[in-house]
Specification:
Largest sheet: 5 strands, parallel
Number of strands: 7
CATH architecture of the largest domain: 3-Layer(aba) Sandwich
CATH topology of the largest domain: Rossmann fold
CATH superfamily of the largest domain: P-loop containing nucleotide triphosphate hydrolases
Strand order of the largest sheet: 2-3-4-1-5
Order of helices and strands: HHEHEHEHEHEHEHHEHHHHHHH
CATH class of the largest domain: Alpha Beta
Helix content: 40-55%
Number of helices: 16
Radius of gyration: 22 Å
Length: 311
């Protein structure tokens, strides 16, 4: 059955097709050339290609694998049963089997993650493990030590090239889907959400329902402006600030914090900038652990209001 979602329909099936910095691509290609993929912990931001890379490598070496989502099936019994059932059955291929544990940073670090460490040892003869996560600090050290950790960082010097490659990829997809598009609009969307490739594709598919991607799309997909937020912070208006956070709750927290950091020099009194940086760094770290990002962001803004002065 043909995939409906573009992120699945056009998911790269080979490492050579993946849009990655050269050093990362070479690392993964070397694993394939050796026909031996070690236990891996793939870490990086959302939509950057961690799961795609894991599947592409295993497809290229023709390995049997299953995918377990840590945020949906993260209890110990589910993991034990699924991994045991998979590892104990005969493989259709001649090599090792693999378990891709997606969103492993959602697994409980006090119970499930220590159990996973034991599973990795118990089934090591039959199974390799590839863990993906957005926040590697949520993964306990014993799992780090049992995996080769690969960070999906895009060096500043390579960002224009990688973004250009992705722009070409999405315009090819739009052409194949018979969607009319404005190059400048697509470029703006790539720029706005880079390097979250998944979000770009999902947004483009959503707005392509009319058969056209034009400047009207930017009204809905433009960057969240923090100008209004700064106004509320400066006025120390807790109610309005909280309302702004609620209205923009679907925006990536890290993106909002980064925008505040970027405009600090022009919006804040010089003696407050250092304090702002410390607050932003503290709450960016906390964002990796909290259950409710909205509450965390409101707490961050409250601390900024209490401790920083704006021009």
């Amino acid at each position: 059955m043909e995939e409906f979602l573009w992120v699945e329909k056009y998911r790269p099936k080979f490492i050579s097709e993946c849009i990655l910095p050269d050093t990362l691509k070479q690392t993964f290609q070397e694993f394939i050339n050796q026909d031996n993929i070690p236990n891996l912990l793939l870490t990086g931001g959302p939509g950057i290609g961690k799961t795609t890379v894991a599947k592409a490598m295993l497809n290229e070496i023709d390995a049997d694998y299953i995918v377990i989502n840590g945020s949906m099936n993260g209890n110990i019994d589910t993991l034990r049963n699924e991994i045991k059932d998979f590892a104990s059955t005969m493989s259709f291929s001649t090599g090792r089997k693999y378990v891709i544990l997606d969103e492993a940073d959602y697994l409980n670090p006090q119970s499930t993650q220590p159990a996973l460490r034991n599973f990795m040892e118990e089934f090591s003869k039959n199974c390799g493990f590839i863990l993906t996560c957005n926040f590697k600090n949520r993964i306990i050290e014993p799992l780090h030590s049992r995996c080769s950790v690969v960070e999906f960082n895009i060096p500043k010097a390579e960002r224009p090239r990688v973004a250009s490659q992705f722009f070409k990829r999405v315009t090819d997809i739009l052409t194949r889907e018979n969607v009319e598009f404005d190059n400048k609009v697509v470029a703006k969307m790539v720029e706005s959400h880079f390097p979250d490739f998944r979000r770009v594709l999902n947004e483009l598919q959503r707005y392509s329902a009319t058969g056209k991607i034009d400047t009207g799309v930017l009204v809905n997909t433009g960057d969240v402006s923090v100008e209004e937020l700064v106004t509320h912070l400066k006025a120390k208006s807790f109610t309005e600030m909280r309302k702004w956070v609620a209205q923009n709750s679907d925006t990536d927290t890290a993106s909002t914090l980064r925008k505040l950091y970027d405009i600090a020099n022009e919006k804040m009194k010089p003696h407050s900038i250092a304090q702002l940086v410390l607050i932003l760094a503290d709450y960016q770290y906390k964002a990796a652990f909290v259950a409710d990002q909205e509450i965390n962001l409101v707490a961050c803004m409250t601390e900024i209001m209490a401790n920083c002065e704006f021009d």
